[in-house]
Amino acid sequence: MSDVVRDIATAVLVLAGAVMCLAAGVGLIRFPDVLSRLHAATKPQIFGLMVICADVALNNFSLGTLTLVVAIVAFQALTAPMAAHLVARAAYDTHHLRTDILVVDELARTRRR
User: Fold this and answer.
1) Using CB atoms within 10 A of its CB, is residue 14 exposed (0-12), middle (13-18) or buried (19+)?
2) How many Cβ atoms from other residues are within 10 Å of residue 45's Cβ?
3) Residue 103: what are its φ and ψ, rounded to 5°?
4) Residues 77/80/86/92 CA torsion (nearest 10 deg)
5) More confident site: 66 or 93
6) d(Cα 103, Cα 67) in Å, to the nearest integer?
7) Among the listed residues 56, 84, 85, the one whose alpha carbon sits nearest the alpha carbon of residue 70
8) Domains of the chain, with CATH numbers?
């Protein structure tokens, strides 16, 4: 791959990753409650990380780099949604969310009193 094509691919991937991470940050600030903020924080952040890791693998292609990139993406993709779920459940259990904007409350029957 020529240097010009690699530089263009790097610019596009880094810009796409930065835009996704910016979207996650804006969502954290703009959304009204914990559940919406967690959704905004986890989805674009994971995709932004994947794009940045793809750029790293593209620019430094070796077995070690590829293994590290796959491990980073896999562990982040496994831990971020679980952590967001636990934070959301804790917010729900401690009544730190806006119930007026919930469409469906599937946990209402299991809520501890």
Assistant:
1) middle
2) 21
3) -80, -50
4) -110
5) 66
6) 42
7) 56
8) 3-101 (1.10.287)
User: How far apart (Å, rounded) are the C-alpha atoms in residues 52 and 14?
Assistant: 6
Q: Which residues contact 51 (CB under 8 A, 6 or more apart)?
A: 13, 14, 16, 17, 20
- CA 44 to chain CA centroid, nearest Å: 4
Percent of the chain at pLDDT exceeding 90: 36
Instruction: State how far the Cα of 105 lies from the Cα of 27, in Å rounded to an integer.
Output: 22
Cα–Cα distance for residue pair 103/113, rounded to 1 Å: 21
pTM of the model: 0.76
Instruction: Give the least confident one: 4-13, 16-25, 59-68, 97-106.
Output: 97-106
Q: What is the mean pLDDT of the chain?
A: 87
Amino acid (one-letter) located at 59: N
More reliable by pLDDT, 89 or 1: 89
